[in-house]
Write the structure tokens for this entry.
Amino acid sequence: MRFLKPSIFLLCLLPLAHLAWGLYSGALQPNPVEALLHGTGDWALRLLLVTLAITPLRRLTGWRRPVLWRRMLGLFSFFYAVLHFTIWLVLDRELVWGLVLEDLSKRPYIMVGFAALLILLVLAITSNAFSMRRLGANWKRLHRLAYLAALLGVLHYWWLVKADVREPLIYLGVFAVLMGLRLPVKRWVG
Ligand code: HEM
């Protein structure tokens, strides 16, 4: 069972390898920047939802081991979100600060994405044993913000699609199920 964590680590790197291969082989043509943005955004959100699914999974099945992978999965979500942001900043907006500020102030979906990224940044910085000790009970409260980050991530996606909301709707559904599983268990059991 000790090989599971390194295997999951490698699995989390697969989307990156897939995107890098697509870039190299030309499979991301005709718009590689858009393809990279979509790929990294999707995986930031997916991994965040997987991270949030670990506690309900433990409560429902009693399987404790995935709790050991939660921090790593959350950090991988942050990793893809940072890549996503960097691709937007450097390749899409080409570091033209006027364009960056205009997008941030005029496009609600960019604002919401930025808020989600800031939350993920705070959670990543405080995801170590030292912060857990320092923050005590507040650490758990702070890290519940992961739910808000996921909701903002879903909203970000919803807002940017013009017509076909099927995919963001699936993410919203997963998020709603995770919230639904969490709330009653807390009220009745905990
Ligand atoms: C400052 C932060 C962010 C910026 C500037 C940003 C920007 C963008 C842009 C420009 C797109 C593509 C829009 C289009 O094709 O029309 C996009 C898509 C997306 N972003 Fe973000 N984003 C940010 C943060 C995030 C975060 C934190 C998440 C996840 C937690 C996320 C998840 C997504 C998803 C799921 C998509 C859609 C991917 C697809 O179409 O398959 N974004 N984002």
